[in-house]
Design a protein that fits this description.
The chain is of the alpha/beta class. It has 10 helices and 20 strands. Helix content is 25%, strand content 28%. An 11-stranded mixed β-sheet has the order 3-2-4-5-6-7-8-15-14-10-9, with helices on both faces. A 3-stranded mixed β-sheet has the order 18-19-20, with helices on both faces. Strands 1-11 form a two-stranded antiparallel ribbon. Strand 12 and strand 13 form a beta hairpin. The chain is globular and about 65 Å long. The two termini are 24 Å apart.
C-alpha cells in the first residue's frame, strides 16, 4: 500500500515558502491579505501535472499552483502518454510541467525528437521534478527543444521537502544527482554524526523545519524516520549521499535498494543511471541476486530502445566500468520487454527481482 504521510496545512504551505517560487523570483506572502492583492503582480502559472495526484510531486505542484491563483491541467488519460502531454501543453499554453524524473522525461524527449516541430513548446518556462533520478543527458536534450525553460530538479520526498535543488538552464546544466543543499538540510551517519564536507563519508540526508506529523497509523515508522538530533526534529527518509568539499550533495540512492556485494555497498540507482547511458538501453533496474562467494551479485535488468540490438553481459559490464568502480559492474544480465513502471514512475523492485531470479534459474527459499 502507498505510505500515508500526514501534513498539517500550515506546514504544507510553509515548506514551500508561503507561496514563493525561488527560481522565478517570486517572494513569499507575508500576510493573508497579500494573497489576493499580489495576484496581479505576477503572471498566473498554468501547470500541467503529469504525475498522479497521490504522489507528493503531483499533489504539492497542484496545490502550489492553486495558491498562486493559477490553473492546473491534468492529462486526459489515466496512463502517461508523452504525445498527449505535448498536445495539452500546446492547447493550454502550459507554463510549468510537474514530472517524476527520467521515467517521465525520457519519453517526453523521445516524442520531441521523433516529431520535430509538431508541438509549440515556447510557452514552457519551468519543468519541475522530484522523486526519481533525472540525467544530465536528458536535460540537455529537453533544453535543445526548449532553450527558454528552466529545469528544476528537487531532492525531496513526500515526508522530506527541501533537502536540495538542482537548477539547469541552456548552457548551464547540472550534473546528475548533484544538488545544492537546502537551508534546513544536513547529512548524518547512522549514529547521528554530521558528515563533514569533502570527507567521502556516506550518510543519510535529513531535513528539519516544516515537517509532517508522521505516517498514518504507523507509529514505529514515524519514530524511525523523524528522530530528534541536536535538539531538533528531523525527517530522514533513507536517502544516502556524500557531501562534496563545496557543500553540495551527491545522491547515491535509497538505502532499501542497497546491494552488499563482497562487503561493498552498491546503490541500485547509481548503477541504473550508468546503464541508461548505453546507446541501446531505454530503461534499467538493478537488483541483488544471491551469490555463494560475495553474498550478493549485481544483476542488471534492461529495456531496449526500439530497434536496438541487445548487448551481452560483457559489453554492459565494460560500459558500467567506464563510469563507476569495477565492483559496481553487473555480473548478471536480464533483458525484458518493459520495466512496468507504476503511474508515478516508480519501479516495483520486488516483482523485478522475482522475475530476474526466475530468468537466472536462482532458487530462493
Amino acid at each position: 500500500m502507498p505510505k500515508g504521510v500526514m501534513w498539517r496545512i500550515e506546514d504544507q504551505i510553509g515548506v514551500y515558502g508561503f507561496g514563493a517560487t525561488a527560481v522565478l523570483g517570486i517572494p513569499p506572502i507575508s500576510t493573508p491579505d497579500e494573497a489576493a492583492t499580489r495576484l496581479g503582480d505576477y503572471p498566473s502559472p498554468v501547470t500541467l501535472v503529469a504525475c498522479p495526484l497521490m504522489h507528493g510531486t503531483g499533489l504539492f505542484s497542484a496545490l502550489g499552483t492553486l495558491m498562486q491563483g493559477g490553473t492546473v491541467v491534468l492529462l486526459p488519460a489515466r496512463k502517461f502518454d508523452p504525445d498527449s502531454l505535448w498536445t495539452e501543453v500546446t492547447r493550454h499554453r502550459v507554463t510549468r510541467i510537474a514530472i517524476v524524473g527520467l521515467p517521465f522525461a525520457a519519453p517526453m524527449f523521445e516524442a520531441l525528437e521523433t516529431n520535430p516541430g509538431r508541438w509549440d513548446t515556447s510557452c514552457v518556462r519551468l519543468i519541475g521534478s522530484s522523486g526519481a533520478m533525472w540525467s544530465l543527458e536528458n536535460k540537455q536534450g529537453l533544453l535543445k527543444h526548449m532553450p527558454q525553460a528552466i529545469l528544476a530538479d528537487a531532492f525531496a520526498s513526500s515526508e522530506a521537502i527541501g533537502m536540495g535543488a538542482s537548477i539547469s538552464q541552456r548552457g548551464d546544466e547540472a550534473q546528475t544527482a548533484k544538488f545544492v543543499v537546502g537551508p534546513n538540510c544536513a547529512v548524518f551517519t547512522e549514529d547521528h554524526r554530521r558528515v563533514e564536507p569533502g570527507s567521502g563519508e556516506r550518510g543519510m540526508a535529513a531535513v528539519s523545519g516544516h515537517l509532517p506529523l508522521g505516517y498514518y497509523k504507523d507509529e514505529e515508522k514515524t519514530r524511525r524516520t523523524f528522530p530528534t538530533i541536536e535538539g531538533k526534529r528531523w525527517s530522514i527518509p533513507g536517502d544516502w549521499a556524500t557531501v562534496n568539499a563545496d557543500g553540495t550533495l551527491s545522491l547515491l540512492g535509497r538505502g532499501s535498494q542497497c546491494i552488499n556485494t563482497g562487503g561493498e555497498k552498491v546503490f541500485s540507482e547509481e548503477v541504473e543511471e550508468a546503464l541508461k547511458l548505453h546507446p541501446a538501453v531505454r530503461d534499467a533496474a538493478v537488483i541483488g541476486a544471491p551469490d555463494p562467494r560475495f553474498g550478493e551479485r549485481i544483476c542488471a535488468l534492461i529495456e531496449l530502445k526500439q530497434g536496438a540490438l541487445a548487448p551481452d553481459l560483457r559489453e554492459i559490464a565494460v560500459h558500467v566500468k567506464a563510469h563507476l568502480a569495477d565492483y559496481k559492474a553487473p555480473r548478471a544480465l536480464v533483458i525484458i520487454e518493459s520495466m512496468g513502471r507504476a503511474p508515478n514512475g516508480k519501479l516495483d523492485y520486488k516483482a523485478l527481482k522475482a522475475r530476474a531470479l526466475a530468468e537466472l534459474g536462482v532458487q530462493v527459499e
